[in-house]
Amino acid sequence: MNPLQDLYQQVILDHNRSPHNFGALEAATHHGEGHNPLCGDHYHVHVVVEDDRIADIRFEGDGCAISKASASLMTGVLKGLPVAEARDMAARFRHMITDDVSAQTDEALGKLRVLAGVREFPMRVKCAALAWHTMTAALEGREEIVGSDSDETG
Q1: What sign does the dihedral 103-109-114-120 (CA atoms) show?
Q2: What is the fold of 3-140?
Q3: How far is CA 32 from CA 3, 40, 78, 152, in A?
Q4: What is the pLDDT of residue 103?
Q5: What is the CB neighbour count within 10 angstroms for residue 16?
Q6: Whole-model pTM above 0.85?
Q7: What residue spans define the domains of the chain?
Q8: Whole-number percent of the chain with pLDDT over 90
Q9: What is the C-alpha separation between 128 and 118, in angstroms, rounded?
Q10: What would the pLDDT profile of 54-101 be if each residue is shown by its tens digit?
């Protein structure tokens, strides 16, 4: 296994065992629910938006290691960002895991780039994308349960 694959696996395992920003958020102004029936992932994303900025974000639920690691990393990266930048980050992340190998070098993605490897496993792309679709739905005020292949264009 190459060093990048080792890092990818270690980050996923670490965030699965000890996810960041995991749990309810009573003061949330926005909520979203997502479900990936293929893997059994089911998450709620709670966001506090103040002055058009993500003041706080948390998630709760159950899922595979990739989905939990993606949600954990997502919450850490988005906390404090303006809503428009959070939406842009979601589009960049989705692009990285689905479309363009060159997106793996997108500096704006920072530590999220460790999840670029899921592109090699199409069934796992849905796992990695679920929290991002759910967060976007929450920001848009959509009340339906979103899937891991939801259209995020609004």
Answers
A1: negative
A2: Sufe protein. Chain: A (3.90.1010)
A3: 36, 17, 15, 13
A4: 53
A5: 16
A6: yes
A7: 3-140
A8: 65
A9: 7
A10: 999 999 999 999 999 999 999 999 999 999 999 999 999 998 998 866
